[in-house]
């Protein structure tokens, strides 16, 4: 969160009362102001007592500790943002005694670390999602992905679908899916989902996606269509069983979804779970659930 002396704010810390308290203190509204306009960084802790935890909406016994940096180097922040926009993973280290900042590119995310001298944090480029097909389901998935923090690209060579696209903030491409996937250069912060139901389009995208580092590769379709798709990719495109093991389908978690909006919720739930490294229980798997309908009659 960036906070100016006039009370202007960009971003957030907790999405609640803590922002209000910081603004109150920073703009001189409190006699017990802990923020000063300058000097070395300092740590502010909220939720130490049960009363504070209740007042600030924190779970009982929980705490939130914030590092405050005063008058940070604007050029260094510009360089950090530029690196992130170019897809570079960055580590930012702040010396706690004087506020000196060191920034460097890194190859893989590292956990936040703090000791008596330094706080180190990883800043990564935003997660990206490539959707094949510009139909109604794609619009719901794209909308949910945008407010979940993904940069979303949609590929559909069919002009009749592209012309009906209505979601703002999405890059829409008309090239063939395999070319788009290649140009997309999927990395470990990318996911690719085929949603056209057209093998001529979905298979081309999946063929390239399964050869990439994308953290999630999936395709819409029934259990039967998913099985046939796997056979097709193996027999006609040379995809190995090991590569096919990365293909998710039927996609989503089992919530009994029927409408496009509900299916999109199901798909995004699975994508976010995989992104966050969560292993979902077997009974959340669509194939498993539909194979045992009596277990979910309630």
Write up this protein.
The protein is α/β, with parallel strands linked by helices and 298 residues long. It has 3 domains: 2-68, no CATH class; 74-123, no CATH class; 128-296, NAD(P)-binding Rossmann-like Domain (Rossmann fold), CATH 3.40.50. Helices cover 35% and strands 19% of the residues. It is built from 11 helices and 14 strands. Strands 11-10-9-12-13-14 form a 6-stranded parallel sheet, sandwiched between helices. β10, α5 and β11 form a beta-alpha-beta unit. The chain is elongated. Residues 293-298 have low confidence and may be disordered.
Question: Can you give keywords for this protein?
Answer:
298 residues, alpha/beta, 3 domains, six-stranded parallel sheet, four-stranded antiparallel sheet, disordered C terminus
């Amino acid at each position: 969160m960036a906070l100016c002396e006039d009370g202007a704010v960009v971003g957030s810390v907790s999405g609640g009362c803590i922002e209000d308290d910081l603004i109150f203190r920073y703009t001189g509204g409190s006699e017990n102001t802990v923020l000063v306009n300058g000097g070395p960084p300092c740590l502010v802790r909220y939720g130490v007592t049960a009363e504070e935890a209740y007042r600030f909406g924190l779970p009982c016994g929980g705490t939130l500790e914030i590092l405050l940096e005063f008058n940070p180097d604007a050029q260094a922040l510009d360089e950090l943002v530029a690196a992130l926009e170019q897809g570079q993973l960055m580590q930012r280290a702040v010396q706690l005694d004087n506020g000196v900042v060191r920034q460097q590119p890194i190859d893989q995310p590292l956990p936040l670390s703090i000791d008596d001298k330094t706080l180190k944090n990883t800043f990564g480029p935003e997660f990206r999602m490539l959707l094949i097909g510009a139909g109604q389901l794609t619009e719901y998935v794209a909308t949910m992905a945008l407010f979940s923090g993904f940069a979303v690209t949609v590929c559909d060579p069919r002009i009749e679908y592209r012309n009906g696209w209505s979601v703002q903030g999405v890059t829409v491409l008309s090239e063939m899916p395999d070319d788009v996937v290649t140009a997309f250069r999927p990395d470990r912060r990318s996911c690719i989902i085929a949603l056209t139901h057209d093998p001529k389009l979905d298979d081309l995208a999946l063929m390239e996606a399964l050869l990439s580092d994308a953290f999630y590769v999936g395709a819409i379709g029934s259990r039967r269509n998913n099985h046939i798709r796997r056979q097709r990719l193996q027999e006609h495109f040379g995809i190995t069983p090991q590569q096919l093991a990365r293909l998710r389908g039927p996609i989503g978690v089992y919530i009994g979804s029927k409408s496009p909006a509900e299916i999109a919720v199901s798909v995004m739930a699975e994508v976010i779970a995989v992104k966050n490294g969560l292993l979902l229980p077997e009974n959340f798997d669509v194939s498993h659930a539909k194979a045992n309908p009596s277990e979910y009659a309630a």
